[in-house]
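Hey,
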Amino acid sequence: MSALQASIGLLNPKSPTNVGGVLRAAGCYNAKQVFFTGSRYLRANKYHTDTKNVLEHIPLTQVESLEQAKPEGATTVVIELVEGATPLPEFKHPENAFYVFGPEDGSVSKDVLKWCDEVVYVPTIGCMNLAATCNVVLYDRLAKLGGIESSNDTICSSRDTNNSLKWQQKKSAK
């Protein structure tokens, strides 16, 4: 079995807060790289939102085309509210995935849909923002494919330095 790999592509993101949130999600869910198109993010980049310094180990790369940036062997999965798309709860994530997200204030173009392999949507009431959608998709991938051990060691290595809480389940009275 090949190693699980996920990369993220952002189409012309505008919000540094959302890109920072995507970077944090990439770090939390072990994505390998993040690509983006357009220049709106670069103009707004002066606002630092990468609070976990994910950029130190996950590259954020501006590209002309996400199609050309697609990692070798990856299945391209567009995440968008598109009629006919597969609902996320029913989607089987590929081991090597390139998740493409549209801009916060628009949709992916028909040209992008032509070169993608899958189109998936997150069933919600209304639409989520870019960072929230990325978190939900990457969490769903992790929950379905595994890759992170569920243990107290994972909790201790993942939590903030100001958190040292422990919980003992109460014994039920019979």
